[in-house]
Amino acid sequence: MIFCTLYSSSSGNSFLFSDGDTSILFDAGVSMKKISEALSKFNLSFDDISAIFVSHEHTDHTKALEAISKKYSIPIHAKYRCGKEIASTGSPKLLSNLYLHESDYSVTIGKYTISSFKTPHDSNDSAGYTIIGNCHKYGIATDCGCLNDVVIQNLIGSDAVIIEANHDVSMLKNGPYPEFLKSRILSDYGHLSNENCAKLAQKLYEGGTKNFILAHLSKQNNLPSLALKAVKASLPIDAKVVVASPDEITTII
Hints:
Number of helices: 10
Low-confidence stretches: none
Structural class: alpha/beta
Mean pLDDT: 96
Number of strands: 14
Shape: globular
Largest sheet: 7 strands, mixed
Helix content: 25-40%
Strand content: 25-35%
Radius of gyration: 17 Å
């Protein structure tokens, strides 16, 4: 069983779920070549990918969709408003692979049901995802400006989660970003801080989650050591916590 980040940072994100028979990508925010190279480390290729699920339309989650669509006929699933934004600049080949869903939706692939849920982010209907099947549950939620009941209730009960630890508040406030960008990141529709990630992890642990990958770290406003320290301090010793690398595979299952 593989549940991992292929790449994860403010610059580009792509996540993989695979049980050997069913392989699914979540986001494709780095080049097609980089994703292909990462897949090859699991003896996988794009020919093995059953579907791609998109969280939202920002480039750090969609960069490779056009290139992938030119070569492969992989279904790309997205919420309607997000998908319409992607489609507005997409080629006919990309459009032919794009499946738009009006609201929160579920798709069954192999033994698994992939379900979306709304995340608070300043994009067109940003989504997180759960993967349920074979007596297990996995969750993904990056690009969350704040904690809310929708995110918590959808992730609760997961065996493992990929959750956002984007920034250290002090580093962000005292860093080089312009004030408007600092305000955007700190808003309820921006990105999740280490502190709030720790609160989310604590709630999920209480619901049974023991495995955590901290993702989407800002290169300018965070350090892996700070994210890890904040989250591990909120959890008992038996929880497993790792910080996703921006450029290398990070796996916990």
